[in-house]
User: Fold this.
Amino acid sequence: MKVIISPAKTLNFDEIDFKDSSKSVFLDMAEEIITELRKLTVEDIGKKLKVNENLAKLNYKRYQNWKKDTSVSSATVNKINSKQAIFTYNGHLFKNIELDSFRNDDIDYLQDNLVIISTLYGVLRPLDLIMPYRLDFLAKIKVNNNNLYAFWQDIITDYFNELNDKLIINLASNEYSKVLNRKKLNKKVVDIVFKEFKNGKYKTMSMSAKKMRGRFLNFLAKNKITDLEFLKKFDFDNYKFSEKESSDNCFTFLKN
Assistant:
């Protein structure tokens, strides 16, 4: 079983004691993208990423300083330049995994089962090292005359097709999960949806959904889940599995 999630825009490169790491599989492709990003001016970056001038300047420096070969740094916080992905992304989903409560076997479970879809790196295992960057699939960037979806779709789809795992649990946002070509994918995909009751109907609330995706990952790792039926036992913050609202390919959890 593989579980896919989206990355986060906010990053935390504070030093940590955890030193085990791995190398991402598509660094050559990431370098191709960086080569294009390095051609952009600060103004270009601001427009293509839709960020303010300060963020544009920051990411200009990040692109210029990015390198393919990285290693875990034992330097001070200000000098650390690479870090394991699972400890670096700092959005709502990642905060709610609550990694501080994890034992080594919980981290091992994530390393074996979790894949982070990345616009720059393609796919990342939790302990793959990353350098500071900001890039999403909506950015108006062309690589080899392809937009970022077209650049990655076959590569990422083939990556999953070649794995022995027969099941993909989708906890990623639509922006990231749609890079998978499901028509060519030889795996069963089960989407996980969280909805709460607002103004007379059930809706997916963005912040709540991100939180619950993190809690769901916590649940998976702490229980070492590999069985599809066991996913239905997730019960947190009054979110419960709804048989009525679910299907074979979509498990829906409702909060009343």
